[in-house]
Amino acid sequence: ITERCIGLFLKEEYGIEDIKLKKLNFRFISDFEQYLRKYRPSTRTKCTNNGA
User: Fold this and answer.
1) pTM for the full predicted model
2) pLDDT of 50 higher than 80
């Protein structure tokens, strides 16, 4: 899941498919963290009933 999210993040935010490790910095990490907090996959279904 994380690899897929990083790939989507790179495409959406930077318009690239890959990034060199040297280019990873605090800003990248912060931006990715915010992306993950907002990310909601379209394939995820919501709970519709209480299945206790």
Assistant:
1) 0.69
2) no
Q: Classify residue 48: in a domain, yes or no.
A: no
Give the residue numbers spanning the domain of 22: 2-38
Rounded to an integer, what distance in angstroms lies between the CA atom of residue 23 and that of residue 46? Answer: 37
Contact 10, 2 (CB under 8 A): no
Per DSSP, the residues of 14-40 read: IS-S---GGG--HHHHHHHHHHHHH--
Kind plus residue range of the DSSP H or E element containing 6:
helix 2-9
- Domain total in the chain: 1
